[in-house]
Amino acid sequence: MPDYQTIDAGRQTIAVRKDLRVPMRDGVTLATDVYHGTEELPRPALVALSPYGKELQALALTTPPQRRPSPMWDGCIEAGDTARIVDEGYAHVIGDLRGTGASEGEHIGNYNAGGVSLGQDAYDYIEWVAAQPWCDGNVGMVGISYFGSMQVLAAAERPPHLKAIFVSGGHFDFYETTYHGGVMWFMPRAAREGRGGDSGWAFTDRVTSRMLESFSPEEITARVAARLADPDVAAWPNLVHLLHYPKHHEAWFDIVMNELDSDWYEERNPITLAPNVDIPVWLQIDQGRGWTMDGTIELFNELKGPRKLTIGPYPPMQSRPFVEEHDKMFRWYDYWLKGIDNGVMDEPAVSVFVEGSRETATGDQWPPRDVEYRSLYLRPRRKLTPEPETMGTAYAAPDGFYQAPLTVTDKVEILQWSTDAFEEATELIGTGAAHIFAEIDQPDTNFIMRLWDESPGGARQLVTTGFLKASHRELDERTTHGNPYHPHTRAVPVEPGSVEEYVLRLYPFATTFRPGHRLVVELSNDEPLADAHNALLPPDAFHLPVGRPVTHKIYRDATHPSRLVLPFTTYG
Q: How many Å apart are CA 23 and CA 30, to the nearest integer?
């Protein structure tokens, strides 16, 4: 009698091993389900690890893939297409992380920061899988987003039987996961609490707060009071509730309490750990993902072993259950886990889909083509031109807008500048910068910039975004022309009434403006409530609004050359 159950998955029968217990080195066991073919033979295994619950991942067998804006899209069904994984001759091994789902142990804070390293657990888990009779000793990993981040944490520990990884849609800089340019982003709340299209973590009573464990009640009270002194936080009911009742969602509490970048984030940052990764890595991300594209490229640049980078087309959110990119993944694993010489390593290391032209740019590095940084200047009458303004402030009066808090208005004020229609196809690939000379009448605000490709008929597609909290305007030594970096290690209030230069990082992108199209740039201090791009995102994928009224004056004159610095390629 076989020691597994079977399920009918349409074109095949799948063997299922439910609720296996995988021992960790400290005696804790992790709950695991295994899916594989019914043939009595060992096969390579693809491991998926997350806090989202292995039972949720089983919906991949019964739920057709959903795309945004479908209300049935659930961001946490991310472990991959089980039926196809089995059909391709692999075992699909899905586990609950320590302190979540049916696993034992305690999960502390975000990514178990302060507890047992998730990479350490992944090492023990992978080595256990490799020793099972249904596995031939060759192990890879599978899954998007959190599952993708887990792959890098695992690889950094160098388990002997982990032969390669394929990371799709991962997020890597843990500070940038929640604070974009210092501006709090709410989607991590959805992943933890289960809101707006996300089932969330499979919480148990063993998910605890690192902050509550690290500081005395008196210190926590003082730190909470300091966070509530931020008018943006104080105006948001969910955050007020969380800060007063942290045991409701401990992991989110820890993130909200740490609004500056620090060792708290960096100690488990996969990019920090990347020098330890020596196995083959394929990184994949889609256009429109902003900070995840940024982190994916940064990770790619840090890797020392065999590596590939694929940047796919817009829109930004892949389907759930996650099924995209499996063709690439199986070519990768067939080569590295099965030893099939399919030519995958003879192809260029970097492949980038270019929006607009819908061509593919390839090369050995990012960006895959030579780039020349050129400036486009903000001009009067909402123009965006290659020529700088020649008039002084007295004649080129600043543009301005007043934004009331969203507690008292539904209107987000947006300034807009645009180029003339492009006369010939113009390709841009890389990161960029926006230099904005601004005066505000408060100690802080947000700057949110979005670049659009607008067709002659008025249809628009997002090109890239940039975010910066005004008090986080400091730049660090990594900054180069067109490629700014902010340390985010302290907040420096703005002197109201002073004109400051704010340099926004424009996240990586690849696009061609076709003849007749225009580049449109928008600037606001709050997220627009609904538009063509936001409709493709989960409801919780927005940024914390500014909680105070702010008047903004945007200077763009001969003395204050507000401008975009963009990566024009020499292709074509």
A: 7
